[in-house]
Protein: Pyrroline-5-carboxylate reductase
Organism: Ectopseudomonas khazarica
Amino acid sequence: MSNPIITFVGAGNMAASLIGGLRAQGVEASAIRASEPGTEQRERLQQAHGIATFGNNAEAIAGADLIVLAVKPQVMKAVCLDLAPHLAPNQVIISIAAGISCASLEGWLGERPLVRCMPNTPALLRQGVSGLFANPRVSSAQKAQAEQVLSAVGLALWLDEESQLDAVTAVSGSGPAYFFLLIEAMTAAGEQLGLPRETAAQLSIQTALGAARMASESDVDAAELRRRVTSPNGTTEAAIKTFQAGGFEALVQQALNAAANRSAELAEQLGQ
Ligand SMILES: NC(=O)C1=CN([C@@H]2O[C@H](COP(=O)(O)OP(=O)(O)OC[C@H]3O[C@@H](n4cnc5c(N)ncnc54)[C@H](OP(=O)(O)O)[C@@H]3O)[C@@H](O)[C@H]2O)C=CC1
Ligand SMILES: O=C(O)[C@@H]1CCC=N1
């Protein structure tokens, strides 16, 4: 398959992670463009990745095979209405915005090949994971191109139902922030227990990395790996009992419900 030309419309945090991951994977700078109002951000991207950047969205998408809409949900409607007259029929739109539905995007852009995707920022290190949903206008070759881009920066999983994207957003789109929060909290707790802050941070981060790699590479599930750390009547059991007494699992469920509900709410508020 030939390498598609990809234009990012909006090149903030998430697009910069995807661009960094694609470049690290060996995608040529000439195959990537970014359109972004911020002059400083444009210069940063040019310097870091050697890609062409534009201050004008219509110019940036001319001749692109894939157009990744990476603006905030709040500006998506205005961006789409501006882009619509400049789109060629065979260009595939990939929206990474939380909440914004295919129906809304089709309302603004016209009926066309659309992929909704929920990536996450570890894409920068090619350790991302994305949920993808394609509308029926996306051909199998176009689907393969979209998958080629997202699988270059991590795991790409196709979804059967568009509605599942709210759950993907709650689990993995927002998910890196939950793990960062746990690292922050463990670092603070380690410091409270008498460790230098830097040591507490190193212990917390390396433990997260090691645990994630074990969960990913082991042939047993996370529950069994946890049991293997938890000696009867030992230190881990004391900590886990404390988490459970504080309602840890219920709190995680509530937090993910809040994220998924917010995704549905954004669709409702901004989708018209
Ligand atoms: N951050 C994350 O972890 C993830 C984010 N997403 C989704 O990605 C999208 C972007 O989020 P994120 O990267 O965090 O947000 P950012 O605000 O970091 O990036 C959005 C960028 O779009 C630019 N922009 C604003 N208006 C326009 C316009 N009219 N044309 C072109 N570019 C414009 C902004 O410039 P300026 O700042 O100058 O306004 C900004 O640089 C959102 O829809 C979000 O739901 C999805 C998965 C994970
Ligand atoms: O917080 C947000 O709304 C975006 C979507 C997923 C991660 N960041």
Observations:
- The chain is about 55% helix and 15% strand.
- Residues 6-168 form a domain with the Rossmann fold fold (CATH 3.40.50.720).
- The pocket of NDP (ligand 1) is lined by residues 9-15, 35-38, 41, 57, 70-73, 75, 79, 96-98, 118-121, 173 (CB under 6 Å).
